[in-house]
Specification:
245 residues; alpha/beta; globular; binds S-adenosylmethionine
Length: 245
């Protein structure tokens, strides 16, 4: 497996000349994030389901990434579940990462990297389990993060993409986290199509009903599609359909 690229671990992120509104919002929320009502109502279950499916997909990963790791809560649970895995957390918000590091003090080491999902500072095929919970609906242009996820996921790896559509819709409607302008492009059905376009095949789509108010948690398990000719064939047919008249 290719190593993480140390030189790019400190790669610049999108809070340069044009600050990311998502990062700015989560920087503000970071201190109170773990005491939010969303945690026990939605995210504890979301994390449990994501970890369960990750364990079934690969009980002993070598390297696990949590993309959009926030305050590192899922990584702390993953540390107990996967005692031998190298753990990485990537997030665009410096505030969330600094909370994660503070909460991790005295625990098993996790490598945290500040980066935009659209520009992951990791080598090709470097990760064999990728978790991404409650984060993908913040992606302004989901194609770029999904292409990055395909690039860094080992061919025998797995991506577990989980979200609570009700919370995502609330974010999109209210503009929370700077997500408003994205419309519904990262809803479940759209994500499924985008994952396929990015070179993943969905191996499981699980729905969970944990909360009586907003019941559905969606977890998608996706594996790299290592049959490029088949994907090319589909693209060919699609372009043929829109082709010469
Ligand atoms: C709702 S929080 C979820 C945090 C954590 N995954 C969890 O399950 O509790 C969304 C996180 O995604 C991060 N995020 C949003 N857009 C991102 C991007 N383009 N690249 C990296 N992280 C991003 C935010 O900074 C935030 O920490």
């Amino acid at each position: 497996m290719e190593p993480v690229e140390p030189a790019s671990a400190a790669a610049p992120v999108s809070d340069g000349p044009q600050p990311s509104p998502v990062a700015a919002r989560f920087d503000l929320w970071a201190a109170g994030y773990d005491s939010s009502i969303l945690q026990d109502t939605f995210y504890t279950g979301l994390h449990r389901h994501a970890l369960h499916l990750a364990t079934r997909a690969n009980p002993a990963p070598r390297r696990l990434l949590d993309l959009g790791c926030g305050t590192g809560r899922l990584l702390r649970a993953a540390a107990a579940r996967f005692p031998h895995a190298e753990l990485l957390g990537v997030d665009i918000s410096a505030g969330m990462l600094s909370q994660a590091r503070a909460l991790d003090a005295g625990r098993r080491a996790v490598t945290y990297l500040r980066a935009d999902a659209a520009r992951l500072p990791l080598a090709d095929g470097a990760v064999d389990v990728v978790l991404c919970t409650a984060s993908s609906h913040h992606w302004t242009e989901p194609e770029a993060p999904l292409a990055q996820l395909r690039r860094i996921t080992a061919d025998d790896g797995v991506l577990i993409l989980a979200h609570v559509p009700g919370v995502a819709a609330w974010d999109l409607t209210t503009g929370a986290g700077g997500a408003r302008h994205q419309g519904l492009r990262t809803g479940t059905s759209c994500l499924t199509a985008l994952l396929s376009e990015a070179g993943f095949r969905i191996t499981k789509a699980a729905l969970y009903a944990d909360c009586p108010v907003m019941p559905t948690t969606v977890v998608l398990c996706a594996r790299p599609d290592t049959a490029p000719r088949a994907r090319g064939g589909i693209r060919l047919l699609r372009s043929g359909a829109a082709g010469p008249r």
